[in-house]
Amino acid sequence: MYQYKQAINDYTRAIELNPEFTKAYYNRGIAYRKLGQYKQAIKDYTRAIELNPEYADAYNNRGIAYRKLGQYKQAIKDYDRAIELNPEEAMAYYNRGSAYLMLNMIHAGCSDLKTACKLGDCKGLEFVREKGFCLMP
């Protein structure tokens, strides 16, 4: 926990020195998210996106923060954009699939988890299959 608090301090200092340092906002957002400070993380990811609208990882991570707050529809919008920017990113499909499942949109969720698996990340698909979902190929 201390390392994330120290990282926040370090990234804050970097931002003070260069207010347009996109990666510092993104990384500070990660540290806030790891500490469960999702609203602050969203602010930093949003700033990183403002500075670089093509930053797929920032959309994906902002989606994670929205999902942690139970804002699944907003999370899905961010995952959609992350996938649009980087269609080969398995994690974005995994995350969007998880959000769909939380909204009880089973077919869409399973479809995304299968795509994530095809791209190399099968953990979500394996987990839901153990629970009796997404059993059809």
What is the CATH top level name of the largest domain? Answer: Mainly Alpha
Largest beta sheet, briefly? none
Write down the domain tally.
Answer: 2
- Which radius of gyration do the C-alpha atoms yield? 16 Å
Topology pattern, helix = H, strand = E: HHHHHHHH
Name the poorly predicted regions: none
Report the span from N to C terminus.
41 Å
Reported by name, the CATH topology of the largest domain is Serine Threonine Protein Phosphatase 5, Tetratricopeptide repeat
What is the count of helical runs?
8
- How many beta-strand runs? 0
Q: Which structural class fits the helix and strand makeup? A: mainly alpha
Q: So, the CATH homologous superfamily of the largest domain? A: Tetratricopeptide repeat domain
Characteristics of this structure?
mainly alpha, single chain, Serine Threonine Protein Phosphatase 5, Tetratricopeptide repeat, 76% helix, 137 residues
How would you characterize this protein structure?
- With 137 residues, the chain is an all-alpha fold.
- It has two domains: 1-53, Alpha Horseshoe (Serine Threonine Protein Phosphatase 5, Tetratricopeptide repeat); 72-137, Serine Threonine Protein Phosphatase 5, Tetratricopeptide repeat (Alpha Horseshoe).
- Helix content is 76%, strand content 0%.
- It has eight helices and no strands.
- It has helices at residues 2-17, 22-34, 38-51, 56-68, 72-85, 90-102, 106-118, 123-130.
- Helix 5 (72-85) packs antiparallel against helix 6 (90-102).
- The longest helix has 16 residues, at 2-17.
- The chain is elongated.
- The N and C termini lie far apart (41 Å).
- The relative contact order is 0.09.
